Amino acid sequence: MAERIAGPEIERLIQLLARLPGLGPRSARRAALHLIRKREELLGPLADALQLARERIITCSVCGNVDSCDPCMVCRDERRDGKLLVIVETVADLWALERAKAISARYHVLGGTLSPLDGIGPKDLNLARLPDRVVAEGVEEVILAVNATVDGQTTAHFVTELLGHLPVRITRLAHGVPVGGELDYLDEGTLAAAIRSRMDF
């Protein structure tokens, strides 16, 4: 059994940091040491920010985003095109689209994807009120911005069927060659999707 080199408080900090995405035990130890060295300027403010986040951050009852207000700032933005509704798997996907500034629309966060193998069905996702929302908000186009995975495509097909009886256009993100990508480095699936999604030049 390895000998303990730090007290329980530090060990607990390392264990919690190691649970964050992208941080393993070694990275967590480095991060913990950095926070401890910068106690006044980093550790204290971080602890305060985490406490505030715990107390104030809630899930938006309209779209499923996270914010400190409900409806969230995205839903409150009257400059957005209310006729466009972008469906995303997670809040991280919503934030990625917002960073790209590619579209000024409203969002609907599913909270994951359908995954029969993992026991995730329609009732586990934010799907039940989607048809009513589309009707109530006068949505004309639903954009399926889900990942190009098996579960993502299964979810996209389910949403298409769920909204099939409504007079709404359903589109999906194009799949294919990324900007600046070289064909020789792309996998076969991406190349095949790029060929299928080809457009006039």
Short structural description:
By secondary structure, the chain is α/β, with parallel strands linked by helices. Helix content is 42%, strand content 13%. The mean pLDDT is 90.
Description of the molecule:
The chain has a domain at about 80-170: 3-Layer(aba) Sandwich (Dna Topoisomerase Vi A Subunit, Chain: A, domain 2), CATH 3.40.1360.10. By secondary structure, the protein is of the alpha/beta class. A hairpin with a 6-residue loop joins β1 and β2. It has a four-stranded parallel beta sheet. Strands 1-2 form a two-stranded antiparallel sheet. It contains eight helices and six strands; from the N terminus they run αααββαβαβαβαβα. The mean pLDDT is about 90. It has helices at about 10-20, 25-35, 40-55, 75, 90-100, 130-135, 150-160, 190-195; strands at about 60, 65, 80-90, 105-110, 140-145, 170. The longest helix is centred in the N-terminal third of the chain and has 18 residues, at about 40-55. Helices cover about 40% and strands about 15% of the residues. α1 crosses α2 (about 25-35). It starts with 7 loop residues before the first helix and ends in a 5-residue tail after the last helix. The chain is globular, with a radius of gyration of 21 Å.
Q: How much of the residues is beta strand, in percent?
A: 5-15%
Structural class: alpha/beta
CATH topology of the domain at 79-172: Dna Topoisomerase Vi A Subunit, Chain: A, domain 2
CATH architectural name of the domain at 79-172: 3-Layer(aba) Sandwich
**Average pLDDT over all residues:** 90
Number of strands: 6
Task: Report the radius of gyration as a whole number of Å.
Answer: 21 Å
The CA-CA distance between the termini, in Å, is 65 Å
Strand order of the largest sheet: 4-3-5-6
Helix content bin:
40-55%
Sketch the major β-sheet: 4 strands, parallel
Low-confidence stretches: none
What characteristic shape results from the CA principal axes? globular
Give the helices and strands as they follow along the chain: HHHEEHEHEHEHEH
Number of helices: 8
Identify the CATH class of the domain at 79-172.
Answer: Alpha Beta
